[in-house]
Design goal:
Length: 125
């Protein structure tokens, strides 16, 4: 995800990912006022943000690294949207998209056009 990308949070604020080292996120109110700027402490200096989702007082950021193994390429970091402090880090031990198969229905996590993560389901044919 290149810098200067924006996502709409569930709180109505816009979260702008800014280029720089360290990476920063500007939180902008619906009126256009900059409420705060968060400095994101990423897992490694060489990682780049490839996804961001905001819900409530938390911001989930997906980092992609230069690792050789597909399983080691993604790291997810959960931040507090008020302070920018890291709450948790997670490196999945699988590659691909998380999915659940229940009978003839498959469900996957997906990001809609507004940047909100939602559960998508479809019946298998």
């Amino acid at each position: 995800m290149p810098g200067n990308t924006a996502v709409l949070g569930s709180d109505g604020n816009i979260y702008f990912v800014l280029d720089g080292d360290p990476m920063k996120v500007a939180v902008v109110s619906p009126a256009g006022d900059v409420l705060r700027t968060l400095t994101l402490r990423g897992p490694l200096k060489l990682d780049v943000i490839d996804g961001i989702w905001v819900s409530g007082s938390r911001m989930l950021v997906s980092y992609e690294s230069q690792a050789d193994s597909p399983k080691a390429r993604h790291i997810y970091v959960l931040y507090d949207t008020e302070t920018g402090e890291v709450e948790r880090m997670y490196r999945p031990d699988f590659a691909g998209v998380p999915a659940c198969l229940d009978g003839d229905q498959i469900s996957v996590l997906m990001q809609n056009n507004s940047g909100i993560v939602e559960l998508g389901s479809a019946n298998l044919q």
